[in-house]
Structure formats: structure tokens, C-alpha cells
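Risk register update: the risk of archive-format incompatibility is retired. Evidence:
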Amino acid sequence: MSADAGDSVAEIVLPADRLDDAIDFLVRLGLRLDSIEPADAPSIAVLSGHGLRLRLDGSTPSIATASAVPTLEVTRADDAGHIGRAGMRYRDVVPSRYGGRLIASHISIADGGPVADYVHHHDVRFQVIYCLRGWVRVVYEDQGPPFVLEAGDCVLQPPGIRHRVLESSAGLEVLEVTSPAHHTTTVEHELRLPTRAQRPDRLFGGQRFVRHRSSGAEWDSWWRGPGKTRNAGIGAATGGVVGVRTVRPSGSDGAGRARHDGEFVLWFVAHGAATLQVTGRPDVRLRRDDAVAIPPHIEHELVECSRDLQLVEITCPDGVQIRRW
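Archived output:
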């Protein structure tokens, strides 16, 4: 048992092999959930009430340290997923998590209707949500009434912004990319959403909320190779920390051989197929819902691109530089 200096509420640490069941039981006893982590596979929960603070410990998953050297990673659409926070299914798109630098999750909800979520916020460097299929109704602090994200839309959830998932269509699928990998989800008990204020230019942790709507958005030239790209504007809102684009390569050879000098480039195949060529490795055929995380200084190329190929491209930083061959 421990207590923070200046805090009269003691904290009791309890083991909990079945975290969800333990949380449900304690909430029925009148305690409230204050925080949970990590979101994709919850193992730590903090609850309070009746003059106590309880920390439930359900054996935290092993996560690589930040000193780990990132490698090229390819994940497949049929890789196993698991149930995470609020009953949503998570598939880990970058299993190594780049030494704790990021977590990328393919999240799905099979049955439509209300989502068992609550007002909460995250302690993060950045967090991006890209809607792949279906729709989801969400609400954000100081950003007006609830709205619907549809396929091709995305949002930047800046650090600390209060938000809530309200409902979704059946078969909802989103890509969520967050840095760092291990972060706390804190429950908001006082603030109610939507808030009366509407402040689109408000900064949260130095970043501005972004809602990018694909309908009517302009296409521009792809920075990487021949093709078109739709920039979500997230680079500008984060001061260049991360960029998000929808990409439609043109021609069979969609991205010439190159390497980048950034932290990472993540490609998620939303539609179509392509072949990834990497120096010194066998070719890899990428299809819908496959993903590849490319670390710096790895020579790579996209060839044999299908005509309907569409990628979600997330780069860190936004203005990553490439060297061509």
C-alpha cells in the first residue's frame, strides 16, 4: 500500500487476472474508474471511492525499450487481434512498437450501435484516427456537437483533449496511430460533452484539433512518386511532428527505390495491392489491410501496383526527406 505525499487517499495495489470483471465488480460497489492502460490490451486500472484508491494490476504486456533498433515490419490482414478498451477489437500493426516509440492499431467493431465508451483523454505525443470503413460518431472538447467520421476521414486527437466515441456502424474499421506506445487513458468525471464553447483554434499540448473530411478534399502530387495524395493537414497542426496522407499511386511502379531519414514511414493498404521490394530481402506482396512500417535508411520500392491501390501513409516527421536511387 502506498500514498502520495500530500495526498490523504491511500492507494492499494491488487492483482487482477481478469481485469474487466474486476472493474465491473468494483464499479457496482460504488467505485469509479479513473484511468486504464494500455488501451489496446488493458492491464492496469486505477479506481477510487469510499476513501480508497485501488490499482488493479493484470500483468502488463512486455514492451520493447526505447533503445531498441527499429526494423522493417510487415503485418498481415489475418494476423490475430484481441479485445481492448471499451470492447473494441485491436490488431497490432507494428508489433515491435519501434522500441516503445509508437503503437499502430487496426481497430474494429463488428456490431453497430452505442459504444461502451466514456469521456476520457490521453497523455500522448500525438494520436491519429483514420476511418477505413463504416462510420463512427464522436464528440470532442470545444469542437462543437458530435459528428460522424466516414471512410477516408481522419482526426488528430491532440494531447489531453477530452473526447468520447458514441456509436458506430456495424463493421467499423479504423487505423489508430499513437506515440508513445504505452500511454495512460484517463477518465474524465466532471466535464460533459459537448461543451458549450466552440474553439477550433484552441491548442492542446501545443497542437490543434483536426477533422479532415475526405468528401470534397483536393488531391495533389505525391511527394514520394507518381500519383495523387490527399493531405489531412495534420502536419501543420502538430508543428511537423507527424503527417497523414491518403495516397493513390499511378502506374505500375508506384514509388521508386529510395530510403528516408525520418523516424518512420507507415503504409497501410486500404484498397488494392502492390509488391514491396527491399534490398537484400524477398519481395512481399501487400494486399488490403496489410501494413508495412519502414525505418530510416532502408532501401525500398513499391512495384506492380494495382490500379485501385490506395494507401494510408503516416510519416514521422511530416516533412520526412528521401534519397532516391
